[in-house]
Structures are given as C-alpha cells and as structure tokens.
Amino acid sequence: MKDFTDADLSGARFVRADLSEAVLRGVDVNGAEIEAPWLFDGTLVVNGVDVVPLVDAELNRRFPGRAERRAADPEGLRAAWAAIERTWAATVERVPADLVDVSVAGEWSFAQTLRHLVMATDTWLRRAILEVAEPFHPLGQPNIEYETDGYDMAVFQAEKPAYAEVLEVRAGHVAMVRDFLATVTVDDLTVARRNPWNPQHPETTLSCLHTILEEEWEHHRYAVRDLDAINS
C-alpha cells in the first residue's frame, strides 16, 4: 500500500489498475473520469453516497433496453437480446466506413470492438455453454492481456480483416445467440457450467448469458463514447 499525501497526480492515467479499497480524502477530482467495467458488482462511495445505483439508473435511461440485461427467464432473455440487436444495428448504421478503424486514445476501433464481441460470444456461448472444444473464430479480437496471461494467439488471424467480413461474422454470432435463446428453457438456465477463465468459479447457463449481455452493453457504451469523441 502507498500513501500519496500532498501529491500531484493531476493528469495521471491508470489503465487496468487495481484501485479497489482505495481511500481518497480531501482530493480535487474536477474533470476526473472513471471507466470501471465491474462497477456494478460492488460499491463506489463519493462523499458518503454509493453512486453505483445512480450511475446504473442513468445508463439505463441513456440506453433503452439495457435494464433488461439481468433478465432471469427465457422470455426476458429473448427480449433483452432483441433490445441489444436493435441497439447495435442502429449504431452500425450510423458509423461511416472511413471511421470503423479509427482508434481514440489507444482504445479499440469500432471494427475491433465488433471483433471482440465475436470472441465474447465464442467464449461464453460456444465454449462455456455449448462446450465446443475449439470455440474461437480466427477473426475474434482477444482481450489485451490474453497473450500475457499465457493463452495461444495462433488461433487468431494477425492481419486486419475487411470490415465487410467483420460484419458478416458478427451477424452470424448475433444470430447464434438469438437461435440459442429461441429454444432455451427454465431448466436449461440452471445447468452448471465451467467459467472459461476461472474453472473454480461456479457458473450456470444463466450467468454465462448475463456475461454476454454485459459485454454487449459495456462495449456498446465504449463504442458510442469514442464515436462521439471522433465527431466532436
């Protein structure tokens, strides 16, 4: 643990850093920005107020359909997926072809984001739920830490694919989830599954589907954020 007293950290950038349980007292946070994918699994207390429910409610307001991402029954899950399909379809439509490979501040481009969602579907549907032995499509975009964590990058193609190919593969994976949800039952949702990254962590079909929906909404938010930055 480090104690930063009277330290000037203005303009500092923390990427994939663990700030859990950090305590900030008497700090100037004007203009500070936090992106925390796991925010909704815990708390963030600002001036004595847990702001997580407030952030969650505001994002639900901004992104209609997001509130359904934790649906717990087949019909609700089908509605939740239909909402994400509509949302992404509208976003894809608004992105000019000359911007799909533009990166903002080192973040994934729009095309790379779509490729990562291909991998997310392969990980949590094909691998975790369907137990496919070799689940990954070569076009998928792995996590930043995938290689450093010791996983084999050889399955993924090194060269950048054409955007038309990205859209085609992505559409196939979207349909894959839709088709699975079309026949899923209440009993199916309770079946135990292996976590692809942490086999000791218990999962069910339902929790895997929730992860897919979380991935979809979080990366949509990132994509829209960066598109707005490009167009500002």
What does this structure look like?
This protein is mainly alpha-helical. The mean pLDDT is 95. It has a two-stranded antiparallel sheet. It is globular, with a radius of gyration of 19 Å. Helices cover 44% and strands 4% of the residues.
Strand proportion, as a percent range, falls in under 5%
The rounded Rg comes to 19 Å
Helix/sheet category = mainly alpha
Q: Give the helix tally.
A: 6
In the sheet with the most strands, the strands line up as 1-2
Tally of strands: 4
N-C termini distance: 39 Å
Q: In terms of per-residue confidence, which ranges show pLDDT below 50 for 5 or more consecutive residues?
A: none
What string gives the helices and strands in order? EEHHHHHEEH
Largest sheet: 2 strands, antiparallel
Mean pLDDT: 95
Percent range for helical residues?
40-55%
Coarse morphology: globular
Q: Can you describe this structure in just a few lines?
A:
With 232 residues, this protein is mainly α. It contains 6 helices and 4 strands.
Which key phrases capture this entry?
232 residues, mainly alpha, two-stranded antiparallel sheet, 6 helices, 44% helix, globular
